[in-house]
Every structure is written in C-alpha cells, then in structure tokens.
C-alpha cells in the first residue's frame, strides 16, 4: 500500500500509548493486560487503514483484536479512527509481522487474519510473501493448536502460491473459495478497503486453514 507520508503520524503514535505500541515484544504473554477484559485473541498482520479489524472489533465485543501494521503513515490512520472512537477490544502494534514469535508466546493467539497481503510477484521476492513457509512457521508457533488462518486476496498468483505453501507446510484446508462474493451462503464477510476497491475487477479468493501437526 502506497500512502503519502503523514508528518503528524509519529507524534500521534507517541501521544497514545494506551492504544498503540511500537515495542510489542514488551507484551509477549501479557497482551490481555492491554484490554478491558481477558478474552480470545485474534490478530491481523498487514491491517492497512483498519476497516476490517475495526468492523470485526465492533461486531465481536467478545473477542480481543490486535492490528499489526508496518507502515507508520498507515497505522496512524487506524489510530486516528480509534482516538475518535475507542474500542475496548482493539489494540494496535506498529511492527513487522515477520517477528510474530517475538511478540506472542506459543499458543497466545486464537486466529490470524491475512487480508490482501502484498503479492511480491517477482520470484526472487517470494520470501517476503506473508504466506511463505518461514512466516507460516511463526504463525504456527503463536497460534493455539487448531488455531485458524483466514486469508483473502484478489491476486491469483498469491492465492496459488499460498495454497501450495500451506499444503507443503502440512496445513488442513477447512474451506477454499475461488469467488467469495459469488457465494450467497456467506453472510458474515467483513470487507477490507482493498476488497471494496478491487472486487469489481475480478474474484476474491479466500482460504481458511489450520495447522494439523502437533507442535
Ligand atoms: C495491500 S495492503 C492491504 C491492506 C488491508 N489488509 C486491506 O485489505 O485493505 C497490505 C498491507 O500490509 C502491510 N504489510 C506488509 N508487510 C507487512 C509486515 N511484514 N508486517 C506488517 N504489515 C505489513 C503493508 O504496509 C500494507 O498496509
């Protein structure tokens, strides 16, 4: 996601340590202390401007959510929305999702969302894709046994790569959609910014997968 630099972003981030952290390693194993109530924890890696995670937090007050986003000017947009309308079950982490195992203890996370991750189409950049095997290993570590990954994309190449990568990692596919929006039985889909923008140009692919093997 390319966004214009927002000179106000670092100041806003520094002013709201109750909503956002830039040192998520400090909360490893202690994330529940940042929320009003201890309850199941779900995280999104690469939240963009936060439309999905904010709507999820509103619809599911019984779940705690963490949005992890690497770009300062992007996570600041989510933060600005939260400052205007705080949600007791949503926290932000300005960080690189590659380091999830440094941010969460094993089994601390119940579900992980990847929405419209950067496709990195060049083969030599495959290791940067958020469904590359090294990322999957990190997700497996922090997710509870049978914890799910929910992955959506409009990018066919990334979808095919992710199916193969998850399969080679030994994950079980609970459900796969080749055209999510054409499935009238899906009633609870929460659209992301990218999904709203790009679904007019082609299908949205979705995978729900779990790690099968014992840790
Ligand atoms: C294409 S955008 C999609 C945003 C949003 N999920 C949506 O669907 O509208 C991908 C986002 O992932 C973020 N991102 C990419 N790599 C990341 C990483 N390693 N850790 C955290 N965020 C990352 C980017 O900064 C960008 O905001």
Can you give a write-up of this model?
Substrate binds at residues 122, 154, 192-195. With 215 residues, the protein is an alpha/beta fold. It has a single domain (26-210), classed as Vaccinia Virus protein VP39 (Rossmann fold), CATH 3.40.50. The protein is 29% helix and 23% strand. It contains seven helices and eight strands; from the N terminus they run H-E-E-H-E-H-E-H-E-H-E-H-E-H-E. Helix 1 (9-15) crosses helix 3. The longest helix has 13 residues, at 72-84. The radius of gyration is 17 Å and the shape is globular. The chain starts with 8 loop residues before the first helix and ends with a strand. The model has no long low-confidence stretch (mean pLDDT 97). The site of S-adenosylmethionine has 21 residues, from strand 3 and helix 7.
Protein traits:
215 residues; alpha/beta; Rossmann fold; eight-stranded mixed sheet; globular; binds S-adenosylmethionine; tRNA_(Gua-N-7)_MeTrfase_Trmb
What compounds sit in this structure?
S-adenosylmethionine
Question: If you compute it from the alpha carbons, what radius of gyration comes out, rounded to the nearest whole angstrom?
Answer: 17 Å
List the strand order in the largest sheet: 1-4-3-2-5-6-8-7
Largest sheet: 8 strands, mixed
- Fold-level CATH name: Rossmann fold
Poorly predicted residue ranges: none
The CATH class label is Alpha Beta
Keywords: Methyltransferase, S-adenosyl-L-methionine, Transferase, tRNA processing
EC number: 2.1.1.33
Protein name: tRNA (guanine-N(7)-)-methyltransferase
Catalytic activity: guanosine(46) in tRNA + S-adenosyl-L-methionine = N(7)-methylguanosine(46) in tRNA + S-adenosyl-L-homocysteine
